[in-house]
Amino acid sequence: MTETTRPAADVFEKVRTHDRREQLEAAKQADLLPYFRVLASEAGPVVTMEGRETIMLGSNNYLGLTGDPRVKQAARDALETYGTGLTGSRLLNGTTPLHLELERELADWMQTDDVVVYTTGHQANVGALSAVLGPKDTVICDSADHASILDGCKLSGAKLRPFRHNQMEKLEKMLDRATGDGGGVLVVVDGVFSMEGDLCNLPEVVELCERYGARLMVDEAHAVGVLGERGAGSAELFGLEDKVDLRMGTFSKSLASCGGFIAGPGDVIEYLRVSSRPFIFSAASVPAAVGAALGALRVIRSEGRELMDRLLDNARYLRRGFRELGLRVVEPGKLPDGTEATTPVVPVIVGEDWQAVLLWKALYEAGVYTNVAIHPAVPPGGALLRTSLMATHEREHLDRALEIFERTIAQFPDLPRDA
Ligand SMILES: Cc1ncc(COP(=O)(O)O)c(C=O)c1O
Asked: Is residue 28 flagged as an active site residue?
């Protein structure tokens, strides 16, 4: 170092000065932090959280299969046969017959040539997008797409053209602009949007992609095991499975485990197996996770219809209950026959971040756990309390939750309401 060299700025400075720090500190001091709350039981309809019995309206265990004896047994069997971990990537150290069986059965379920399984859903999106897109390509994303989609797009170096959530004229504008970019074009949407819980307008997205010659990828994380006759997701629901090039799913929701997958044409999936960095350079999912996902998939394929019907009935019931209380809920979108869609995510619109946190805390203290979505998970001023259902919720749980909501919102006169 010469005398004139200045020492480098401290990269940790942002740890002390980031723009959320003050808010986080204030929330912690007042015990208002809605995150990292300790769950001391299975994520069933009623849980033990911080020593109290709480109605769980903040889990993605949509079909309630994380506690299913068959799924647990499948995890146990995999653990006994293959041990606790695979200590390396699928490519070199860790493809078991279970991974291959799971991939075959998922491909059969999704009715695609092939499927590749990743260790997490986040890795599936990052891994697929960073491999199929390059710096000369353009990727067009809905502004409410999951963060892992954005991460994969950024990593790929492709030109990113976001469009306003579910606004088809904005998507068309971006497709039109992308024709001038000169490279390949991929549109990426969520089948069911994770925070808003609304359905993508897939028929129009497909139509526009066809018109402009763009490829289409759909993230079905909140739709597999939930929508469609077979539970294969939003593409199945709309009868558009053969029009969607790539479909992504996770095991961390209906499939009651941890991991993710990409389903699509054989040549693309084979390419991901040899060029997708999060697939090649990260350890394979632990056998128990693969076993549980396969166990859950088999339950869904044999008797999933009944579970999915119960889940969607519960979602309709809670949505109706919220509306009767005057709460404003996010509109879930329309089915092909023009009727209102149902998804397992029923968010209550709150608006301002602090109000959402205070309402969350009041509900939590009264015995209902929900998820708080504040900026940047949602647009500024668009804070939500995200509730989500399980097939295993009984009416009694939902009635109790609605009573608690009714009592609690009486203390929140500024909450957006519908007349
Ligand atoms: C729409 C969507 N895509 C991808 C992911 C990532 O999946 P995972 O949590 O299984 O890594 C999530 C998870 O929250 C999600 O909601």
From this structure: no
Kindly report the protein residue whose alpha carbon is nearest to atom 8 of ligand 1.
121
Q: How many other C-beta atoms can be found within 10 angstroms of the C-beta atom of residue 29?
A: 9
194 given a catalytic annotation: yes
**Which DSSP string corresponds to 305-372?**
HHHHHHHHHHHHHHHHHHHHTTB-B----B-TTSSBP--SEEEEEEESHHHHHHHHHHHHHHTEE-EE
Residue 191: pLDDT over 90: yes
For 305-325, write each residue's pLDDT tens digit: 999 999 999 999 999 999 999
Ligand 1 binding residues, C-beta < 6 A = 120-122, 125, 146, 148, 190, 194, 219, 221-222, 250, 252, 260
- Whether residue 274 sits in one domain with residue 185: yes
Q: Minimal CA–CA distance to 233: which of 261, 205, 191, 295?
A: 191
On whether both 319 and 192 belong to a single domain, the answer is no
Q: What is the pTM of this model?
A: 0.96
Domain extent for 354: 19-66+303-409
C-alpha 252 to ligand 1 mean position (Å): 7
Q: How far is the CA of 122 from the centre of ligand 1 (A)?
A: 6
pLDDT the model gives residue 273: 97
Question: Does residue 102 sit in the same domain as residue 42?
Answer: no
**What are phi and psi for residue 161, nearest 5 degrees?**
-125, 95
Q: Annotated catalytic residue: which of 194, 234, 254, 285?
A: 194
Looking at the structure, do residues 381 and 272 belong to the same domain, yes or no? no
Average pLDDT estimate for 379-393: 95
| Residue 232 and residue 184 in one domain | yes
- Atom of ligand 1 at shortest range from CA of 125: 4
Q: Which atom of ligand 1 is nearest to the CA of 148?
A: 4
Ligand 1, atom 7: closest residue by C-alpha:
121
The SS3 of residue 140 is: strand
pLDDT tens readout for residues 282-300: 999 999 999 999 999 999 9
Residues in the chain: 419
Task: Give yes or no: residues 62 and 128 share one domain.
Answer: no
Active site residue 361: no
